[in-house]
Amino acid sequence: MTAWLKEGGIRLGLGLLWLLHWLPLPVLAAFARGLGRLLYRLAGSRRRVALRNLALCFPDMDEPARQALAREHFQWLTQSLLDRAVLWWAPQARIRRLIQVEGDIELAERLWQTRQQATMWLCPHFVGLDVAGAAILLKQPRPGASIYQAQSHPLMDRLMKRGRLRFGNAEIFPRQDSVKPLLRAIKAGHGFFNLPDMDFGRRDAAFVPFFGVPAATLLAPSRMSRLLGMAVQPVITEILPGGRGWRVRFLTPLKDFPTADAEADTARLNQFIESQIQRMPAQYLWVHKRFKTRPAGSPGLY
Prior knowledge:
Layout lengths: L1 H19 L4 H18 L1 H14 L5 H27 L2 H7 E5 L3 H9 L3 E4 L6 H11 L4 E5 L5 H12 L4 E5 L5 H8 L3 E4 L10 E6 L2 E6 L1 H9 L2 E9 L6 E5 L11 H18 L23
Parallel strand pairs: 1-9, 2-5, 2-8, 3-4, 3-5
Antiparallel strand pairs: 6-7, 8-9
Helix pairs in contact: 1-4, 2-4, 3-4, 4-8, 10-11
């Protein structure tokens, strides 16, 4: 009975999400602000994770300020979840109008055409992350590739894959599978949409500082870009206030990256992500347990 109710709740929630794609984005944004305030109160475990992350990363910020930042974060996070209704089901023309692109979005195509050099789009976990993928697929000609984390619920898994692939011009590869198909796609000219700042454990990772706290961080961006001779271009997404759409910034490729020192490169990437978080701290994904994996002998932080 409990499983049946849970399944029904998931399907009902996804049905309501589909209905929301008909609403104007400013209406969705206003709804997200109220719902985000409610979720901050109700989602106790995620609220505690966010507050713990903020305490670790901003130790000089007083508790009332961190709580205010966490409340704002829940509003942006909720809006990003509701925005998926638009990204998954709204007409492409509407999505194109809502995405503002800044910077050199044509870099990947130009590098491949002129020197057969592939590009890694480095996309830190700001809450509007899915919009960066949509911008890449809708507004530049180079095909994309990414790694996909399978969802536990089959319907959610199917919807997320369909939503991310609905614009064509892309392939996604399950994280648990061999990396060889991804490498073949990159060698064939696909740009690689890479998320560098999640805690996936100790495997292929190094403990490098993130706001001064040792964080298990994948070495793959440095190692893969060095192996394949890729340019590494950061891509940052910002949700604009008032439902005005989204801004996606294609930044200048990282200079002198990668080097032969993958750990130093990884520390440098964390420093870069910190600088971007300082610009809009409320839109970074603070509900993720970024410091879950600890160095040997260190106590847990959550």
